[in-house]
UniProtKB/TrEMBL annotation:
The keyword Nucleotide-binding applies. This is UDP-N-acetylmuramoyl-tripeptide--D-alanyl-D-alanine ligase. It comes from Thalassorhabdomicrobium marinisediminis. ATP binds at residues 108-114. It is an enzyme of class 6 (ligase). Pathway: Cell wall biogenesis; peptidoglycan biosynthesis. Signal peptide: none annotated.
Amino acid sequence: MALWTAAEAADATGGQSAGDWVAHGVSIDTRTLAEGDLFVALKAARDGHEFVAAALNKGAAAAVVTHRPEGVPEDAPLLIVPDVLAALEALGTAARTHTKARVLAITGSVGKTSAKEMARTVLARQGRTHAAEASYNNHWGVPLTLARMPKGTEFAVIEIGMSNPGEIAPLSRLARPHVALITTIAAAHLEAFDDISGIAREKAAIFDGLTANGVAVINADVDTSEVLQHCASKKEARQVLFGQMSRDWKLSHVTLSEGQTMVQADTPRGALMFKLSTAGRHFAMNGLGILAACEAMGADPVQAAMDLSHWAPPTGRGTREVVTLDAAHEDETLILLDDAFNANPTSLSAALEVLASYTPTDHVGRIVKGRRVAVLGDMLELGPDEIEMHAEMAKDASMQALHLIHCAGPRMRALYDALPDARRGVWVERAEDLATQASDLVDAGDVVLVKGSKSSRISLVVDAIRKLGHPAAGPQG
């Protein structure tokens, strides 16, 4: 089924279309472009106009451009517009207008991508659901996700992120959600704000785009919950709270056990239980928030609670793998928890709790006794108190259950120095230097958490550990 015709795209953007083309998708990257996609020539480090010829040669239906690029034939299928990004936004606006879908927008300092995937997983079992396949949550990603939305969509899930003040409100107005969910507020991107209340107010700007009679789903447990509720009140949104302190969707009990999470909750529908096929109290909170959002979207939260067990975290956000270190000895394995995509004190504390919930295996490695091992890279964008924040993690309650902590990066030196001698592993300046030592850092029987901000490059250690052996079949729960 056609996503965009030449006439529809021209009408939406006010551009001039050359040729009578039909597009079945929208792409901003020739590396992932599929035949029949409309290629949008955005300008970043390089100008997308440089790739128009390649996109057309790869089978693009047409390209959105400000002019015909050099080397592109005069009869090439193009949509010529004054501004390419504005045209992408216009396509997103038109797609949103043309659908009767119920739209859920999600933001938060931690967990928005996982929550988006939870929502996709459960809503897809109740209706035709559209969501981005990756973490497309910025000024390109949100309009791109909307522009890709089929007309027959019944539920849409839009992730909205930010790095600086003023970014969320325009994206929310573009999405015009019926329901807006804030997962949590934490010290992420703090360097761009005066304090955490500033982060809360920016996240609460997601309520700016709510439709009439829109619903704000808010974490009741965060210190800034009252800030979020005040912002929702100003927008006259109906408020639904979730969390241990909630009067609406109350988290009553969470049990972490060997890669699983069992959750009990008191809800407007009565008592609910659900299971997640991965460990994490933070995932339990996200799951509860998604159930509250599902009810606000008009979906069945009881069915959604049963379907949450089908969700698994995205790569690098808490996935669990079994790595076989010696193919000749099937029992010589370790458990690898890959959480190397992002980090701040809140998410690190949650990950350490997950690590502490595991039981290592004894008598299978060279060290005999299995260990809980954390490999940690720098947490970035925390502002002027970043060194103190790193050092404070040594006091985290879950640290008592860990056997060894390896650290990489100048900021993580503060945590390393604050650790007791018995738990200190290796500290290095760069993650690359830890990766080269992977075989000495871990052993069979260990449970190994790797976590840090993406730019710390701690994911190199994940790759190095995987290469020590052959992972069992994919992520496991």
